[in-house]
Amino acid sequence: MNTWRIAAALTLLASIGIATHYAKEVYVARRDTPALVGLAWQRYGHGIALSDLSKNEKLLLIAVEDPAFYRHHGVDLNTPGAGMTTITQALVKLLYFPGGFNKGVAKIRQTLIARYALDPLIPKNEQLELLLNVAYLGSQDGQAIRGFETAASAYFNKPFKALSETEFQSLVAMLVAPDRLIPGTPDHAQRMRRIDDYLTGKYQPTGVLDVEYDGNNQQSVGQRGLMAFLRLIT
């Protein structure tokens, strides 16, 4: 019995320590969010406004990248096809992890910041505009391509506002795997076809992780455990 009590006490102390650590992380993130967002605008510019998108383009971006974007609070672990990274969480990777994002424990910090710092403090429409201006869309000659304006020039040799809706979709299609889904490649063409089927209702995602629209919603034991934990803390 004494051993059980000691183990329970140690578990409680560890839980309190972890909770305190992440509470501090959220506090710091909330404090720093305005400055981090301001630095992002300063570094990448505000070349694209949400008003530069047609109604169809805006709907397409949200449907593919974050179907419940305007309904959730930074985190969505339930909507089929949403994946484990919302638009808000993707922005957290860019803004709060300057040294790079490593899978695993960092997912907890990313999720908490998205839920309790970035989403409450930055309006949804500004989040979308940030994505359009700072998203990573592959590289060219060893240089990262950031934002849809730069990507429009790199892949289509034209300014963003001159893109057709199909060309805009081509860039959106890249976001899930920008180093693999390069316009003009077979993988990208396949991704475009699958997005078309999804948008027209011919295909319905089979679960949260079916982001490729290929019926693959398999979750490892680790993923199931992590998703359960993230649901608990958000």
From TrEMBL:
Keywords: Transferase
Residue ranges of domain Glycosyl transferase family in the record: 48-190
Pfam families: Transgly
Presence of keyword Ubl conjugation: no
Pathway: Cell wall biogenesis; peptidoglycan biosynthesis
Gene3D superfamilies: Biosynthetic peptidoglycan transglycosylase-like
Domain of life the protein comes from: Bacteria
One GO MF term attached to the UniProt entry: peptidoglycan glycosyltransferase activity
Keyword Transmembrane helix on entry: no
Annotated protein name in UniProt: Glycosyl transferase family 51
